[in-house]
């Protein structure tokens, strides 16, 4: 019956194959019906009806049983469809509920029929998909939270209908923490092309806007930083080339020294820009080897002592430091950047101290100044790419703002860490660690 899809009416079980006869005889059955349960031509199951009486089946019995089997089959198929639909709905709800973007679905009567949790969070409207809520209500909710209201959702919908495009608007919401969102509308159609309503995608672009602003500030700063040494190099080179002035040897050497110094400054800036590009591309390389930090620290401090008279740079090192696994050139770059920053951000002079100490798994190096310090709210961003501390004192200092983010990337490429402790007006201490080099033969 299962294979053929036809009803099997057995009036005398004893006359049927041994398996059926033996199984039924044990229960005392003498007749039975095997009824396939059909739906859309597919066998979904088999219904066995057995009797202890001898029964002769008529055509009416067969017709009735087939009708019953069909009804049961349809009921099973419908139950399977409902179960499948529920599973699909649960999957779809899970997908839309996990979206990083907000999603709102609106029917042809402008009623909101669905809003995922992210949409409610971004817009700050927990009751977004309440029964009867419309996009007109949504416009009112948004207008109450928007810093500078522009196009409403209803206006965007009109644009969508008229131009068949996907209109987009951006606005800043005054929620618990102000955020900028991008709202995009799109039409929803059925398989035949008929309109079912519209969808609204809401994307948080706050961080993107912040990065764009920081990049713009960075480009402006870098342009200024490039122009300054270039102007000096060009100016003094042009001066030296003048035919109407006979410069004495001392003046010539002073001009050439300035050109040399500004060339080094320009080279360093370009190197920082290239490092930042490598960091962004994920191609920054370090060539780690057994490295003694002690001579690197002493040489770097000696270099800066010759460059500044307003600062007393002290060194506090143990007699012996264990070797670290580091790229010597990069270790020197990190230390130079931190000492240079300590000098820059101590405009009134004062002591600067470089310390190093061995720990169980690494060597910790610290650079301390008694300069202007860093505001608490800026500490968490101090190592961010494109970030510059912004206050009256730091604006006088200048700089490209690339150094610390590059230091962080280099140190993390060595499996080390960098952090800062600071108080406004009391100075800052930057700490960084580099892992100890393994001893030869160590397991």
Overview of the molecule:
The structure is a single chain. With 443 residues, the protein is of the alpha+beta class. It folds into four domains: 8-95, 2-Layer Sandwich (Beta-Lactamase); 99-204, Beta-Lactamase (2-Layer Sandwich), CATH 3.30.450.20; 209-281, Signal transduction histidine kinase, dimerisation/phosphotransfer (DHp) domain (Helix Hairpins); 289-435, Histidine kinase-like ATPase, C-terminal domain (Heat Shock Protein 90, 2-Layer Sandwich), CATH 3.30.565. Helices cover 44% and strands 23% of the residues. The chain is built from twelve helices and 15 strands. The protein has helices spanning 18-27, 59-97, 117-123, 135-143, 153-163, 206-240, 249-281, 293-307, 328-344, 376-379, 392-397, 403-413; strands at 8-10, 31-39, 42-51, 102-106, 112-115, 168-173, 179-189, 195-204, 289-291, 311-316, 324-326, 350-358, 362-369, 418-423, 427-435. The strands form four sheets. A five-stranded antiparallel beta sheet has the order 5-4-8-7-6. Helix 9 (328-344) packs antiparallel against helix 12.
User: What characteristic shape results from the CA principal axes?
Assistant: elongated
CATH superfamily of the largest domain: Histidine kinase-like ATPase, C-terminal domain
> What is the CATH C-level name of the largest domain?
Alpha Beta
Q: Provide the number of structural domains.
A: 4
What's the average pLDDT? 83
Q: State the CATH topology of the largest domain.
A: Heat Shock Protein 90
* Low-confidence spans: none
* Largest sheet features: 5 strands, antiparallel
CATH architecture of the largest domain: 2-Layer Sandwich
Question: Which quaternary structure do these chains form?
Answer: single chain
Structural class: alpha+beta
So how many helices? 12
Cα end-to-end separation: 71 Å
């Amino acid at each position: 019956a299962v294979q053929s899809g036809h009803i099997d009416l057995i009036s005398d079980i004893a006359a049927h194959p041994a398996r059926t006869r033996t199984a039924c005889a044990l229960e005392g059955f003498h007749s039975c019906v095997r009824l396939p349960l059909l739906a859309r031509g597919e066998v979904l199951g088999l219904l066995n009806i057995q009797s202890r009486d001898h029964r002769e089946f008529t055509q009416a019995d067969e017709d009735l049983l087939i009708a019953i089997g069909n009804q049961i089959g349809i009921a099973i198929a419908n139950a399977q469809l409902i179960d499948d639909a529920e599973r699909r709905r649960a999957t779809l709800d899970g997908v839309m509920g996990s979206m990083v973007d907000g999603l709102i679905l609106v029917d042809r009567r402008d009623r909101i029929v669905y809003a995922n949790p992210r949409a409610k969070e971004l817009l700050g409207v927990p009751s977004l998909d309440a029964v009867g809520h419309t996009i007109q209500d949504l416009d009112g909710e948004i207008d109450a939270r928007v810093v500078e209201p522009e196009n409403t959702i209803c206006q965007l919908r009109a644009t969508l209908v008229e131009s068949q495009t996907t209109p987009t608007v951006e606005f800043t919401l005054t929620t618990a923490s102000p955020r900028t969102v991008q709202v995009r509308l799109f039409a929803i159609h059925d398989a035949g092309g008929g309109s079912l309503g519209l969808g609204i995608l809401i994307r948080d672009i706050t961080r993107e806007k912040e990065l764009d602003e920081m990049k713009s500030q960075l480009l402006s700063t870098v342009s200024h930083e490039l122009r300054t040494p270039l102007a000096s190099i060009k100016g003094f080179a042009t001066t030296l080339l003048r035919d109407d002035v006979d410069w004495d040897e001392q003046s010539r050497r002073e001009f050439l020294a300035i050109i040399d110094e500004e060339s080094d400054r320009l080279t360093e800036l370009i190197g920082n820009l290239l490092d930042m590009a490598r960091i962004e591309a994920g191609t920054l390389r370090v060539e780690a080897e057994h490295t003694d930090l002690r001579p690197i620290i002493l040489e770097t401090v000696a270099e800066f002592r010759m460059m500044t008279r307003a600062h007393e740079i002290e060194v506090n090192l143990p007699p012996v430091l264990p070797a670290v696994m580091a790229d010597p050139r990069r270790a020197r770059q990190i230390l130079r950047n931190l000492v240079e920053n300590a000098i820059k951000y101590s405009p009134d002079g004062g002591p600067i101290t470089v310390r190093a100490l061995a720990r169980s798994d690494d060597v910790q190096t610290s650079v301390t100044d008694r300069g202007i310090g860093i505001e608490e709210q800026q500490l968490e961003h101090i190592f961010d790419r494109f970030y510059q501390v912004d206050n009256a004192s730091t604006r006088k200092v200048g700089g490209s703002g690339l150094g610390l983010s590059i230091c962080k990337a280099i140190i993390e490429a060595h499996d080390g860490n960098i952090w800062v402790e600071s108080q406004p007006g009391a100075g800052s201490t930057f700490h960084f660690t580099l892992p100890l080099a393994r001893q030869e033969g160590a397991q």
